[in-house]
Amino acid sequence: MTRWLLAPLATLLLAAAPREAPITLVENGRARATIVVDAQASEETRFAAQELQTYLEKISGARLPIRQDARGVSGPLITVGAADASLGREGFRIRTAGGNLTLTGRDDAGAQLAVYAFLEKHLGVRWLWPGELGEVAPQSRSIRIPAIDESEEPAFKWRNRGPGGALWGATSGPTEMRARERLLGVSGRHQAEVALWEKRNRWGGLKIYGGHALGEIFPPQKYARDHPDYYALVNGRRAVPGPDYDYKHGGQVCTANPGVVRATTAWVRNFFDAHPDYDGVHITMNDSGGFCECDRCRALDSGELVKRPGIEAEEMKKAPSKNTVITDRIFTYVNQVAAEVAKTHPGKCVVSMAYARYSSPPRTVRLLPNVVPQYCMWSAYRHANAAMKEEQLATAAAWARAARRAGIYEYYINGSWPGLHRLVLPQVADSIRYLHAQGVDLYQTQSGDDFAINGINYYVAGRLLWNPALDPAVILADFYEKGFQKAAPAIRRYHQRLEQAWRAATVGGEDVTCNSIEKTRLLELFTEELLAECDRDLAEAARAADSDLVRRRVEFYRQGLRYTELTVAAVGASRRALRPPPEKLLIDEALAAWARRDSFVEELKDDFVVAYFWARYNDLQRDFRPDRRLREFSKAIP
Q: Which tens digits make up the pLDDT trace of 340-357?
């Protein structure tokens, strides 16, 4: 088990191996070493060298020079490069020899990870959340390192934090979620900071594109007029997408139509031709229902019924035919496409989610080697319930047995949860370890930028996906000590309190969602007592903080709690206002509560505090916001 987080980091003078003296990189604020990166190195590897230079200077005040050639250079050399063929993809090695230090990877990603691992493991640097406030860089005028020879490779080969999910307001064609966020006002700087945080914290891996893909593969402007038969037959008519199509929901296709298979194959081939650096691409059906009911499609089904309808429950109530498992038809289609793609693009993967009515493994179809199913496990955050945990993990294991390579799509956040506190580290850790043991090595989350609220989930998960043998308790202890020092006990208690509350609310199997204002259990979860205790924890942390930096970090968490408090207050006010008979005072109070919450969200949308995209998505795509109803109630008052 890797236990490097236990190593003392109070001083940067570490015990050397007996056969090699320590190497001095900086002495009394003066550079003694030189960073060397090859003139032909990629931009990514040059960036890694610059990151090393930056943080050595932040730690010691000394700016080490970067050279492209070591000739004529005196003193220790720190070589950063990507040329170690003995390592696997993203693998890296940190090694001292002959008074020099080498930080090398198999590839550019490995070179970057070598730098970040060296800064973390040997110099005490941490990136708790994106931005300067989340950065920990211990101060020392001198930096000496011991003999080192260590190498690492990731356990999970795809560690993608998403955010993925459905798009808000996409009405003019396929739109990446991050691009849509920019249209919402989330800056490019914000998104770049998040991407850099992910890289520093070992998220990354394979390059796999897409998700619900039919909007891109079968845009109605290309196929609706000439090929209406490509779209699903629903209730006796071809469901050709209309003007309100958002390119991610509905718009399903007839997967048994040979023309659909040919068009999908052509699209996948074009994608890999245009993006040869990608390892896989999704051809997943769109979100929601509306699957084809033609005889050819239904003949491929197993005849089983969905055991837990989930998100399609209402549709399935309308007709028994809409309650059938459709996995075999879907993966027949995926296999047909993959077989053709393998002829022209060997080594590339065709990916499909295993989702909704096709979430269980196929009964009759044997998946081809280049087919990657990605089981949508909804979700470890519900695994306080033993039965649900057992069922979902068993399904994940069955998919791993059914495919040469399988992946997971995990929901740290979703459209029914606008980024309130959902701390589920024990459940996430258990699931990651189990999945790894089953041979699953592709893992993607649906997440947000709510680092002041649920960021600790992302921080710990990234490390466990790299190495599931790490102890979450050790990771957490290090996080609290490095980030909060004397305030660490209060912050730990704050997180534990919220974690225990979520567990207690879901252990019986019932979820806590924000789908509707009437049915939400939000007030049962976030009771007045719980929120008051959380407030006291943060107040204690602020008193214990012995530096302005720590006090600002506590305030960062305080902003996260404020978002939850404002949302809960608005829900409570709305519940009171919606009780008949309508009272204008109560209605005005509820509307004002939502306005305060909206103002707060808008003010902080670029500050890594709230999951702005998901807050807005929930506001507009669920029945959680009662503003319109409240205004109608108000009009009805004489």
A: 999 999 999 999 999 999
